[in-house]
Amino acid sequence: MKKKILTLPVFLLALALGGAAQADGDPASGFKVFKKCGACHKIKPGQPSQVGPNLHGLFGREAGTGDFGRYSEAMKASDVVWTEETLAAWLRDPRGFIPGNKMAFPGLKKEEDVRDLIAFLKRATR
Q: What are the chain's domains?
């Protein structure tokens, strides 16, 4: 009986930690999602911008700033700083989040893809 009492808290802790890890997203799955983005965006420092800006150093950066010369006026005037929360809103609906921006991508429909992509970008763009 005593053993069951000791293992129940461990089981509950494992469940809680497993749920937290899943809520943060899976970077490996996020890499697969990024393949949709990689045609236009690069993530390594010094890689030339293609259709969209290089995402290296994305978190904490103000939208519409960086070495990319073709930001829309809407993006430059947005006063958005890229955090997990703002990026999640952007990834779900770029046109709705910053109306008038130039990004043609319609957004990600699956919340899991949003979480996974953010987890990947947090690691890959440092």
A: 26-124 (1.10.760.10)
Name the band, by pLDDT with cuts 50, 70 and 90, for residue 7: very low
Separation CA 42–CA 1 (nearest Å): 57
Q: Are 107 and 94 in contact (CB under 8 A)?
A: yes
Best CA proximity match to 67, nearest among 56, 82, 78: 56
pTM, full prediction:
0.80
10, pLDDT greater than 70: no
Band (pLDDT 50/70/90 cuts) for residue 19 is very low
Burial class (CB in 10 A: 0-12, 13-18, 19+), 104: exposed
Closest CA to 92 of 108, 115, 112, 110: 108
